[in-house]
């Protein structure tokens, strides 16, 4: 396992003649994974919209004018019903997303912890993506039975500054570090198609691969360009770029579960098959990602049949965590107020989208 990849080396892999790249990635894939098994996760937006951050890609940022309807935190019962549906349709993992900058101790976080306990007791892997978290919050999630925490680096450190001004790259790395102090696995990846260069893509992979240990799972999202967001006019990323990105991720992070994430509605079956061949071994299933469309489960199951793929059972890579009930918890809420950074530099297109939203609202 190498943690010292250079950007030049990664770029060289990314730009290899495609047949060499595919062959190398597929060979490495087979050394650590069964190429016919794909882990299937279902996303659940437990708290939608109204987010204070300015992520240029995100339809849930309050400052942009999109069609997303904001919702309060879902109830534990609603989440349980959705998790059972996901399980019956073949998912082994539920990934709960909240449009938060960071987690705050209090009744809402307690409710999320209860959701984690409830889903873990259904014998499904539980993942959360709730924004920045402290070490204590990571421990509390771990005690509740969390299997994975998703926190993406999203791009290279350099390009991150062109997309988000309300937090810094180091905040992301610090949260990942906090998760690493527990037994919870790390899920971290990014987005392509935001206008970044191939060098930025390589830079992101260098940052991910140099984490030690490397993330257990790495989502590769193709930007879903949503009207009203600063990136609304980005052209869909080419399937060739997606295949190259998946293959390069597989080569530099041989053990990680590479997740073919947002953007699958734009991809043909042939395109997706090439991504699986290149080392992708996980998808998000269900007709919705967090707020945008995703292929129908039945279509995905047909594709699996066609390609001879099978959904992976839960807890194959790591044993199921135990759930500690709230009253026996070792970690109490500390009510910390961590100083996550707020660089607040100006990103022109983010400012323009914010002004356009103000104009549309008045
Ligand atoms: N608020 C938390 C955070 O930002 O970490 C969790 C939810 S956030 C929606 C999770 C991830 O979704 C982001 O890091 C980004 O990679 C992905 N994402 C958001 N909007 C997207 C879009 N339009 N296209 C592709 N991926 C997107
Ligand atoms: C990830 O990397 N992709 C998922 C999950 N982690 C949380 C989210 C994709 C969101 C796409 C835009 C939306 O549906 O709002
Ligand atoms: Fe908020 Fe996460 Fe969307 Fe950024 S990506 S605006 S932090 S929900």
From TrEMBL:
SMART domains: BATS, Elp3
Pathway this chain belongs to: Cofactor biosynthesis; biotin biosynthesis; biotin from 7,8-diaminononanoate: step 2/2
Biased composition regions of type Basic and acidic residues, renumbered to the chain: 341-355
UniProt binding sites for [2Fe-2S] cluster: 95, 127, 187, 259
GO biological process, one term: biotin biosynthetic process
Region: Disordered, residue numbers: 341-362
Catalytic activity: (4R,5S)-dethiobiotin + (sulfur carrier)-SH + 2 reduced [2Fe-2S]-[ferredoxin] + 2 S-adenosyl-L-methionine = (sulfur carrier)-H + biotin + 2 5'-deoxyadenosine + 2 L-methionine + 2 oxidized [2Fe-2S]-[ferredoxin]
GO MF annotation terms: 2 iron, 2 sulfur cluster binding; 4 iron, 4 sulfur cluster binding; biotin synthase activity; iron ion binding
Cofactors demanded by this protein: [4Fe-4S] cluster; [2Fe-2S] cluster
Pfam hit, one: BATS
Cofactor binding note: Binds 1 [4Fe-4S] cluster. The cluster is coordinated with 3 cysteines and an exchangeable S-adenosyl-L-methionine. Binds 1 [2Fe-2S] cluster. The cluster is coordinated with 3 cysteines and 1 arginine.
Function in brief: Catalyzes the conversion of dethiobiotin (DTB) to biotin by the insertion of a sulfur atom into dethiobiotin via a radical-based mechanism.
Quaternary context: Homodimer.
Name the record gives this protein: Biotin synthase
Organism annotation: Nonlabens ulvanivorans
